[in-house]
Amino acid sequence: MTPSQEKVDKLYSLIANEEDARACKDISEQACTEVPRNFFLILISQTLTSLGDLLTSPKTVLTWLMTAVGAPAALIAWLVPIRESGSLLPQLLIGAWVRQHALRKPFLVLGAIIQALSLFGMVLAVLWLQGLSAGLAILGLLVVFSLGRGLNSVAMKDVQGKTIPKQRRGRLTGLASTLSGLLTTGVSIWLLSSAKEAGVLIYVLLLLGAAMLWFGAATLFSQIDEEPGETSGGGNAMQQAFANLALLRDDVLFRHFVITRALLLSSALATPFLIVLAQQHSSSGALLGAFLLASSLASLLSSSIWGWLADWSSRRVLLLAAALASVFCFIAAIASQLDGALVASIWFYPLLFMLLSIAHAGVRVGRKTYLLDMAGGNKRTDYVSVSNTVIGALLLLTGLVSAVVASWSLFAVLVLFAAMSGLGVLFSWRLKEVTAS
């Protein structure tokens, strides 16, 4: 063993909180020997992509970007649905395609490159176009970006499931989110002092920086040591994809998990309405920095804690995060009916945004870890692709319903999200424990 390998193993043993850095669970003995190296390759690459996601968030950065180029409000309303559903809906077909290949690492590299090139395209659109044409170009490139994101989502869960043992996956995801949150905090502080002065230039720099982060992640993905896994043979991808939908009918645990995840969409869908409420009191450009800082602090303060808790019980993480989301959505609903110095202050809604983002981070870490631990091999790939595709469709439906309700009353839509999260508590409670199995 080389000195550098010894250092990697020692550092991994500290993070994993174990004396034997090669202790493994749910992966092969051969894969076990590469766990420390793969852990840090995935950790750094996920940190880069998580930072890139924060710097191109449709809830904050892309919303302000579209406003800066003069895009119509009707186009801005499609940012979140396209970003999320565009990466989730195709995964039924993407999963069937990916599972036909013994190595899934190349799909990680491809997905990261697609996302990087899409962001470069957005930079050109911002520099060369204005108004409607700029907005349409950004939305079109966001569709392509989301397809690359969906490819990464399917492949990453399978690669991570093959290279990282159980009870180490949650802390890997949480630590990556914490590190990216720390880095984004610095960017947010810079934005707080620069957003009013630099205009579109700031968004160009954010997009260029995020594109380079994805190129860096692609390089790291290519270095992961992955063993060949199961394949589904040469069957038709379309037929196999729709055959996998039978999992919702036949697999009770999986169906229950998908229902729970669907209810907890509320933690993600509620956050843009906090920005809407904040903009009713102030249109200051510093709000971008404040909300981005709130988002990064949420990752920094909570993700690693959620990750460690998920390695103990991902079911209990879902339960706690759902309860917090319900409470914070209800507080936001009450705040929407108030009109005083408290809610008008620049920090009130960013703080509430941060608390709700902490709950959403718990939902994300909990459901990712739960899904990883439910199954192995191709079944894991099928679970990911089917659940993501179903959730993508439900996201569009829920987004449409919430948009209609919100056009009538912001109070009503926030109460709706609080109720959904409350039901999510009940369904999380009924989930079976899988983490320690």
From TrEMBL:
Domain of life the protein comes from: Bacteria
SUPFAM superfamilies: MFS general substrate transporter
Family annotation (Gene3D superfamilies): MFS general substrate transporter like domains
Keyword flag Transmembrane helix: yes
InterPro entries: MFS (IPR011701), MFS_dom (IPR020846), MFS_trans_sf (IPR036259), Sugar_transport-like (IPR052528)
Span of domain Major facilitator superfamily (MFS) profile: 202-437
Transmembrane segments: 61-80, 107-128, 134-151, 172-192, 198-221, 258-279, 285-310, 317-335, 341-363, 383-404, 410-429
Alphabetical UniProt keywords: Membrane, Transmembrane, Transmembrane helix
Name assigned to this protein: MFS transporter
Pfam families in alphabetical order: MFS_1
Species of the source: Alkalimonas mucilaginosa
Keyword DNA-binding carried by entry: no
